[in-house]
Amino acid sequence: MVHVPEFHLGKNLLDNGMTKLLITLVLIVLAPMIPLYILNISSPIWLPSKISESRKCDIFRGKWIPYQDTPYYNNATCREISDQQNCMKFGRPDTDFLKWKWKPDECELPRFDSGQFLELVRGKSMAFIGDSLGRNQMQSLQCLLSRVVYPEDIVSYTEDARFKRWFYVNYNFTLASSWAPHLVRTIDTDPDGPTYNRLLNLYLDEADHAWAAQVEKYDYVIISAGRWFYGPQVFYENGKAVGCHLCLKNTIKNLTMFYGYRKAFRTSFKTLISLERFRGVTFLRTLSPAHFENGEWNKGGNCVRTQPVSKGEMKMDGDDLELYLTQVQELRRAKREGRRRGLDFRLLDISAAMVVRPDGHPSHYGHWPHENVTIADCVHWCLPGAIDTWNELLLQMLKRERSRGAIQ
């Protein structure tokens, strides 16, 4: 403890200005002993003050507030929107779902700055690994960046559109997509069977080679998985079937989808940690809620709301909550294990924001009416739309990564 002596100052001393001199001398002596965090000067000055390394502000907890500015882009200005999420192209009549902004409880979430994002990733690379919702987010990012530049060169190692790379020449930035809906090696037991609910064999201790063979070169990895685990699956470990979910086979032990889900993430994180040349930052994007109402997904369920709902009206529960908690638990485990190698694992937690956005899905506006598509899409998200917020959050996380690097 630093002891500050008392000074008993008489009237004459006050009159001749000695008080100010003594106080100045005391401050000069004590200044080196004051912790820097009290002075709030540890964060780089280029970060916005309300977001800079703000541990007091949880940007993932907040509410949607009305916002009347026009969207960042539309289906005429961005060529990267898949038809399935191109709600304006296929005649969605309402636009209220575009007029909301995510507001964290204790700070502001800045609008997406395309130029700032591209500067942060200059000379780096980023891969989205997972299912079509990961691709949904990546296409949102491409549209957001198109306000500044389109990739001038496409560099791909396959003709499969699910595995693509884009190169932003002026920023030396590579963006990639890798389709791996279960994250682990998967074999379709009936490739010519029905589109939905085919039995799949999941090798839970083997990462999907499609992404594992490529991931070492990336500086940022955004990994996600979810809806595909609801279907029938046989789980394999060490080459042997250890159980199944909805497989209807009496000779195999019944296991829940949560077993396979946990193992898939554990194997994926373990793979990243074990790759000798991998030095990237991994972001786990949490579960994206579906919003089927008035029936199940294959029994007439739809999503026709036009505005967000209150937290009390919709919340994450049941199986979705269990999947979400499983993700978070496995990420915490990965953070502990990754720390030994100096690897960072971060949580891109979009679940609380999106569970109250049943208005944001394409429903039947991802195709023409005459195409006779009977199942509504209440899983993916319209572009533009609420999913653009995921990349607003990602941008703030990248800023924090830069801040951590500057402090270290």
Automatic annotation (TrEMBL):
Gene Ontology MF: a single term: O-acetyltransferase activity
Transmembrane segments: 21-47
Keywords of the record: Membrane, Signal-anchor, Transmembrane, Transmembrane helix
Subcellular location: Membrane
Chief subcellular location: membrane
Source taxon at top rank: Eukaryota
Keyword set includes Transmembrane helix: yes
Any one GO cellular component localisation term in the record: membrane
InterPro entries the UniProt entry points to: TBL, TBL_C, TBL_N
Mode of membrane association: Single-pass membrane protein
Trichome birefringence-like N-terminal domain residues: 56-108
Domain Trichome birefringence-like C-terminal: start-end pairs: 109-397
Protein family per UniProt: Belongs to the PC-esterase family. TBL subfamily.
Protein's UniProt name: PROTEIN TRICHOME BIREFRINGENCE-LIKE 9-RELATED
Organism, as annotated: Salix koriyanagi
